[in-house]
Fold this protein.
Amino acid sequence: MSPTPPGELDRLTRAVARLLGTTPAALTDAFRPAGAAELAEVRRMRVPVIGDELTWDDDRYLRWRYPDPHPGAPESRLWCLTHGGRVLAACGTERFALRLPDRTLDAWHILDLVVDPALQRIGLGAWVMLMVFARCPLALALGASEMARSMSERLFVPLPDRHVWRLPLRTSVQLSRKLPAPAAQVTGAVADAALALVRRARAVAGHVRIVALEQPPDDVERLANTLAADDVVSSRRTSASWRWRFADNPRSLYRFWAAERDGRVVAYLTTRARGGSIHLVDWVWDATLPWEPVARPALAALWARAIAAHAGPSMNGSIHASTYDARSDELCRALLLRRREERRPHLLRSADPGLVPLL
């Protein structure tokens, strides 16, 4: 599959080089992995681009995301275009193992695309992406900025969007936007009490014990392997990758949970709280066990107990989750509400047209 015509990279290289007052060869040579100096330049360039949403220590984030060799961290690089003594654009790549039911493929996540705002209209973002694709033959992107979305039809093949699910933690906060304060408080209190009862009921599953863990579990990969064998398409998960991605992540504080039944781990979950909301971030379960009456009730109890543990008086936002597989959709449907107007684009770039039906 080639979303862009043959020769598009050469044509765009000539056009961008002409607009920047350089040669195609010099432009190509100036696209390379970032060093320490470039990393600092990229951080400064990201501040006005990300704007008010930048609530973390971005220097720590970039050094964590694109580290020197680090146990558990994936192979990742931040590619930069430097011209005239400054960084004009950057794009990150993160290598991962894409697990299909019949094989495992090398693939790359595309992330952290940023272009100097003054140069966004000259095709520089598209050129950077094409340069990355030349190095990453199977690339996926999840979600996208407005700039990246505008390029997606030409550069990627869209896959089915991830489903977005939410449920207010305090319905009175949501109702206050539509109803007078007294009515919102009374109606919200009744609704919140009903939702609390539902969550409490979901948190009870026969023979299931929910455990809060201090660290990522050591056998994440064992459960993840059963999902691959059960025809669930996923990226490879290991205890080391969970430790790097969640325990070491400077942007958020994550918590870890396990569901056990008869002394056997049925499922793991990782969650985070941010901005008054609870995010169900990642989960795995033992697909060798029957979905009913074992795995699904255990997962439902796991989610409900984790939500209850997070849901303190200061949590006035929502419960969030996004899904891509039918089993997780079924679970969300019983606990949350589908936000059909919200989209999390899932995009693919590959030379193999046979991959699209599998994903």
Q: What stands out?
A: The chain has a mean pLDDT of 83. The CA atoms of residues 213 and 256 lie 5 Å apart.
